[in-house]
């Protein structure tokens, strides 16, 4: 039991036990220079081949039998106590680590759900702003205003923007660095702008529909909301779209 406990305990508890053995032997023997006897006891209980009875017989050379028995009862009881304390501390540490991992997992799931909600909200907000932009920019007639709203779903922004390989032949709207939306020759929407007098205007006034997964980052022509990252300083994503 002594050897098992000593081989299991951490360094802090081993040092504590050694100091307690010194004090206990000093109380029983009254010998001031007790260090040699304390080391001898330490070597005995740390030897896997030495039994409790052998420890008792060995110590009777230095103390009466009744004091040896009293000392060993105290010693092995103390070993049991320290070993139980150590096991509980290890279990608590493992449980705390498991709880921490589970908490982080829940935070990540919550952050992903929040990110998805923000993405959907940004898309709705961008569509609403774009609808208002085109409807307000038309000053001709009520027909133009109605047409701008009813046809807004057909006005699509090129997701490749300035990286588009089709150039002015692309059928989708391209956004210039000045924020003005233009359409190429391949666009089937040019007639809608001309027919109803709808001006493209500055499309950069709207929210980015691809945020937080926008590939253009700070170069995007659309607005990116300022939303704190759920992970704060723990965030490891180099391309995170949230603020830290």
UniProtKB/TrEMBL annotation:
InterPro entries: Znf_CCCH (IPR000571)
Zinc-finger found in the keyword field: yes
Alphabetical list of Pfam families matching this protein: zf-CCCH_2
Zinc fingers (C3H1-type), renumbered ranges: 202-227
UniProt keywords, alphabetically: Metal-binding, Zinc, Zinc-finger
Statement: the UniProt record of this protein carries the keyword Secreted: no
PROSITE patterns, per the entry: ZF_C3H1
Segments forming domain C3H1-type: 202-227
Gene Ontology MF, one: zinc ion binding
Name of the protein this chain belongs to: Coronin binding protein, putative
Native organism taxonomy: Eukaryota, Sar, Alveolata, Apicomplexa, Aconoidasida
């Amino acid at each position: 039991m002594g050897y098992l406990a000593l081989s299991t305990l951490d360094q802090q508890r081993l040092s504590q036990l050694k100091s307690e053995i010194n004090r206990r032997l000093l109380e029983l023997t009254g010998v001031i220079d007790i260090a040699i006897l304390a080391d001898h006891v330490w070597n005995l209980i740390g030897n896997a081949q030495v039994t409790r009875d052998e420890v008792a017989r060995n110590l009777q050379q230095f103390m009466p039998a009744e004091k040896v028995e009293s000392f060993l009862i105290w010693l092995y009881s103390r070993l049991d106590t320290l070993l139980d304390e150590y096991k509980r501390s290890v279990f608590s540490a493992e449980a705390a680590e498991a709880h921490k991992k589970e908490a982080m997992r829940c935070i990540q799931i919550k952050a992903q759900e929040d990110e998805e909600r923000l993405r959907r909200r940004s898309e709705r907000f961008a569509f609403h702003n774009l609808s208002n932009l085109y409807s307000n920019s038309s000053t001709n007639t009520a027909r133009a205003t109605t047409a701008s709203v009813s046809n807004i779903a057909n006005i699509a922004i090129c997701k490749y923007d300035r990286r588009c390989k089709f150039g002015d032949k692309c059928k989708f709207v391209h956004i210039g660095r000045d924020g003005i939306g233009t359409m190429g020759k391949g666009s089937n929407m040019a007639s809608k702008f001309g027919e109803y007098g709808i001006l493209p205007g500055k499309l950069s006034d709207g929210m980015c529909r691809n945020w937080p997964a926008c590939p253009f980052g700070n170069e995007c022509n659309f607005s990116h909301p300022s939303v704190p990252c759920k992970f704060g300083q723990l965030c490891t994503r180099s391309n995170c779209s949230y603020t830290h």
